[in-house]
Amino acid sequence: MKINYYDIFLDFNFKELTYQGHEIINIETDQDLELDAVDLKIDNVTLDGKKVRYEVANNKVKVNTGSYRGNLEVDFRGKVKDSLVGIYRAPYNGSYVISTQFESSHAREFIPCVDHPSYKAKFKLSVTVERELQVISNMDVERVEEKGDKVTYIFKETPPMSTYLLYLGIGNFEELKINNTPEIIVATVPGKISKGKVPGEMAKKFIAAYEDYFGIKYILPKVHLIAVPEFAFGAMENWGAITFRETALLADEKSGFSNIRRVAEVVAHELAHQWFGDLVTMKWWNDLWLNESFATFMSYKIIDSLYPDWYMWGEFLMDETGGALLKDSIPTTHPIQVKVNTTEEIEQIFDDISYGKGASILRMIESYIGKENFRSGIHNYLTKFSFSNAEGNDLWLSLEEASGKPVSKIMSYWVLNEGYPMVEVEARGSRISFRQERFGILNVRDMTYPIPLTFEINGKRQELLLESERIELEAEDLKSLKVNLDKAGFYRVLYKDLNPVLSSDLNLEEEWGLANDYFAFLIAGKVDYSDYEKVVRHLMNSDNHLVVLELSDQLSFLYSINPEKYGKISLDFHRLQTPKWAKREDPIGVRTFSTLASSLAKMDEGYARELSLKFSQYNELDGDVKRAVAIAYSVSQGAKALDTLLKMYKESKFDEEKNRILTALLSMKSAHTVVNVLSMVFTGEMKKQDIIRSLQYSLFFPSVREAVWEWIKIHINKVAEIYSGTGIFGRVMSDVIPLLGVGREVEVSEFFQKNKIKGAERGIQQGLELLKAVSKLA
């Protein structure tokens, strides 16, 4: 079967949130046609203008076409939902826009279609709306026709693309146009376009850089960057009409480095998809990672080339590799390429494995074959499969042809198998041995991996492909040793003797890798606390922002689990480091100070009172510093700060500021206050999209965690329903449960055994496994 094009006519009643539709689908089929359709009313179906028998059942429209070449026409009606997927209402300030989110299988909630990524087709859209409204879609507007008190926007035809990339937005938009080819248009709801210039100018640079790297021009005439006021995900790569959560798109010079860098990464990620995912698309969701891993990897690569002072590969390790290493070390993991049988399974694999691990493996293979060979292979792959669909093996073959190295052999193993190895390094006399085993923080099935091993012995670089369990090398007079250079390999390294590596000249990435590995070994019981503390004490006074941020995260987590057991080392570290970074004025320095100060304020009320004195100058502060000061003010003032912070939250114009204040509110020690703030999601005072973030930020203090747990038990179904069809609830619970459940492990486990949340099963099980591991540290 083949779908050549969809010609779609829609007439909206914006106030009633309904629409009538008529579509012409040009098909070539040798058997009866099945269209996907969910919550749509089908009024009429014709072939060549003649009515034809059809049946609507099980979210399908089964049409008696037989063998047919020509036009199928469907009349249908739909409703705009109050959800976060399909076609939905996104509210703001007493009004709303209509927006769409179709990945992975929600286009069928908008129009009857063959909602499958491999059935690419051209789309031509005509949309009738009230005169005062604007319409945005993938292509630019061909013309606008007046129809009484309404107008019809007629859009140019798209190139062949998958249904999940179709976009429609209706409402009152402000737009900022960036002079460029293609035209770049930032769109926001009224009053927010002032933060559109920074992302628009970034997009201009990113598109030019991608065109140069891929050797393929961006082929559409324009790209919209659309800030949607209520949005479940960070962003969505609809071809030519990319949608974003407001905090993932809107920024200005006062936003602070953390926000600006985050906006850059998300914009670069979605623009990478315009080639890798939109121009060339996976055949089926088994290869979702092909889209997401590559866009993730490329976003850091492109930003690093344009903003080298941002140190993006360090950010990559913290943002992508670290989370993937953790989630891939438990029994409930999955291969990068995972078999997907049903649409319900798709949403649960948008996770750290599909994004972070896949991107980390791409970084590892680029390091193995060389940057130019990697680039050449990508160009050949995109050229060969443009406007079509491909599989993972197609990419490996392309990289293999470009490099002459056994990419298919290596990558097939890493992509088709779950988990990753730990390499144990031991020096005995004049010999060094490398022994691998699969790493797990709980018991996992052992495996042997093909590891592109890189190491330095006494400052001399060496590399080999370790395919066996063990190998020994000669090494006379060992003075220094480090393994996994630049932390480019997706594996951990355990040294039987720490002294040679602590005597080595470690770069920023390698220091981060040492700290990250040994915290994982502590959780897994591979080392005792004294070995972990030895690494921490060695790195305690580091000037490396990567290792400082990593240790701050680890020690804050340990403090939260058991302040009596881990309080001294955590306070020692934060009291030593925070004043050092307070003197820095560069973006990375200010951002690092903000993280340290935010954590120290929660542990040390004296420091919180001192830092909160800056709250009187809040509006003049750097965006990153604002966050730390607001948290300090909340912690030190407690209930006395509530009215002030709530007023600021409600009056804040931009979500960027709302999120800072929300984080501060959730940092209070008052359990009653925190659960009342969480409940704002049910009154409309908090955006639905922010409840998940709120749960993550409310867990530092044990007394608050207890109240949050009681709140979750009461409201879990309502919160899960908010994210129905997205998979997000399960992914966030995998991060929430490990801390939330400390001290109540049996109760939490039994609760989730009795209360199954559809679409969140994998994430909840991951959380329970992580809880089992980290509970041993308490």
Automatic annotation (TrEMBL):
Where do transmembrane segments lie in this chain? none
The residues that the entry says bind Zn(2+) are H269, H273, E292
Q: Which GO terms describe its molecular function?
A: metalloaminopeptidase activity; peptide binding; zinc ion binding
Q: Name one GO cellular component term.
A: membrane
What's one GO BP annotation on this UniProt entry? peptide catabolic process
Please list the residue ranges annotated as the Peptidase M1 membrane alanine aminopeptidase domain.
201-414
Q: Where is the ERAP1-like C-terminal domain?
A: 481-772
> Which cofactors, if any, are listed as required?
Zn(2+)
Query: How are cofactors bound according to the entry's free-text note?
Result: Binds 1 zinc ion per subunit.
Q: Where is this site: Transition state stabilizer?
A: Y355
Q: SUPFAM superfamilies recorded for this chain?
A: Leukotriene A4 hydrolase N-terminal domain, Metalloproteases ('zincins'), catalytic domain
Which keywords accompany this UniProt record?
Aminopeptidase, Hydrolase, Metal-binding, Metalloprotease, Protease, Zinc
Q: Which CDD domains match?
A: M1_APN-Q_like
Q: Which residues form the active site?
A: E270
- Provide the Aminopeptidase N-like N-terminal domain boundaries: 4-165
- EC number of this enzyme: 3.4.11.-
Class of this enzyme: hydrolase
Q: Gene3D superfamilies given for it? A: 1.25.50.20, 2.60.40.1910, Neutral Protease Domain 2, tricorn interacting facor f3 domain
What name goes with this protein? Aminopeptidase
Q: Which organism is it from?
A: Metallosphaera tengchongensis
